[in-house]
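Ops channel
N.P.: pipeline sanity check, posting one input/output pair.
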């Protein structure tokens, strides 16, 4: 499945060739597809490893970032996060940087895996609080650590408005785009974020939250890792049931303005996802639509 015009194609044969070049001791291990996101393709390697390859040159910028910072963040967090074990270098087989990680067992957070949603929301809040409390260790909001979701809403208004316009032209899209646009524009009138900038995961959606025995066990995919203001960090909460969302709110002690800005970020990311992936990635579009409908269904809250 190709999602981007400039996407670099890869398959299991290419993965094995990369391993033969750079880690021959792993080249004979079984290789199988282990999922694909908007930015990366993943292959399970044997029982203990995961190969992760960026789809585009732009996505590859996140690879070195993860390799540099994840080992430094991991000791401060109360959950497992990806552990890089090989820094793949560009070659004639695959022209971008890539990674091998230790495999983390677990199921995506969802109705079939989570046994207690309020407890899940509280546990997620503990992880987020721990991440935001980690010293910056010399990092700053610049270069690859300046992901847009750590800034202010106004800087994104032009392209978000264009995504609203695009969604308005999609035939068969059953969604109150104008109400969502109103919620977005209302958030633009709020004060801009201020205060301490922190480490941000940037994409805490359910597919990046792994569950074991009903409880949150690991957080994966730090491709959006950045330094910035934490408002957008809370935006995936509308992907979770109300019980988890309320428990997270209570545990984080968030004020109303932060919550409204977080909701605006949730709208922006989902509307852009619908606009960009409507014809190429139906599953991701469904995730975005589910988030937007949850927001519309709770628009009168707080």
């Amino acid at each position: 499945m190709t999602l981007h015009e400039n996407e670099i194609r890869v398959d299991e044969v290419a993965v094995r060739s990369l391993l033969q070049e750079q880690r021959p001791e792993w080249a004979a291990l079984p290789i199988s597809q282990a999922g694909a996101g908007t930015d990366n393709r993943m292959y399970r390697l044997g029982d203990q490893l995961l190969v992760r390859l960026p789809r585009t040159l732009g996505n590859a910028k996140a690879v070195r970032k993860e390799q540099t910072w994840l080992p430094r963040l991991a000791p401060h967090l109360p959950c497992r996060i990806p552990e890089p074990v090989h820094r793949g270098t560009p070659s004639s087989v695959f022209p971008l940087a890539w990674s091998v990680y230790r495999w983390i067992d677990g199921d995506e957070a969802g109705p079939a895996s989570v046994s207690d949603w309020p407890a899940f929301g509280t546990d997620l809040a503990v992880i987020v609080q721990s991440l935001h409390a980690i010293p910056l260790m010399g990092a700053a909001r610049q270069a690859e650590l300046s992901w847009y979701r750590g800034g202010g809403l106004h800087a994104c208004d032009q392209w978000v408005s264009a995504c609203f316009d695009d969604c308005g032209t999609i035939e068969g899209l059953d969604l109150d785009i104008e109400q969502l646009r109103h919620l977005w524009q209302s958030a633009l009138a709020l004060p801009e974020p201020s205060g301490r900038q922190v480490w941000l995961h940037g994409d805490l959606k359910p597919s990046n939250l792994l569950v074991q025995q009903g409880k949150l066990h690991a957080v994966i995919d730090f491709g959006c890792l950045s330094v910035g203001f934490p408002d957008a960090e809370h935006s995936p909460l509308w992907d979770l049931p109300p019980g988890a969302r309320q428990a997270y709110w209570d545990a984080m002690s968030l004020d109303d303005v932060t919550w409204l800005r977080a909701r605006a970020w949730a709208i922006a990311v989902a509307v852009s996802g619908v606009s960009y992936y409507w014809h190429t990635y139906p599953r991701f579009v469904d995730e975005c639509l589910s988030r937007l409908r949850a927001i519309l269904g709770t628009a009168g809250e707080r």
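N.P.: looks fine end to end. Residues 202 and 224 are 5 Å apart (CA to CA).
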